[in-house]
Design brief:
141 residues, alpha+beta, Immunoglobulin-like, 2 domains, five-stranded antiparallel sheet, 1 helix, globular
Length: 141
Amino acid sequence: MTNLIINQTKLTNMKTKASLFKSLLLATAMFLMTPLHAWEPAQFGIVIQLSLVEIHPDPLHPRTPIEIPQIGQTDHTLYFLDEIDLSLNLYSVDEVGNETLEYATVVPATTTSVQLPTDLSGTYIIEVVCDGLYFRGEIQL
């Protein structure tokens, strides 16, 4: 009888340890799946949705996983979360679909925000070029 109680106690301890291990494993997985630089959209206004449109690979350097730059917008201010060197272009589009470059700048990795000219208003195509990758989206000013 004593042997049965001892075995049940060991089994209960093993189940408790397994449950704790599963909880720890799940918490670790959730942490690893959350970007370290995650931010709330309200923190920097609107989050601009960018899509990868073109790749010009560097044959001398292998490609790492592609990460879409995260850019927030409040009025005419753009906020850059990622610390990467990039080029930023704004294009207006006429009724036929022709694009005209309206604004261009280079953004060093140390820059956290850029103030766009206040005379720009309307809908523009935003193009972000970094590391041979071209991303595009739409921006409303």
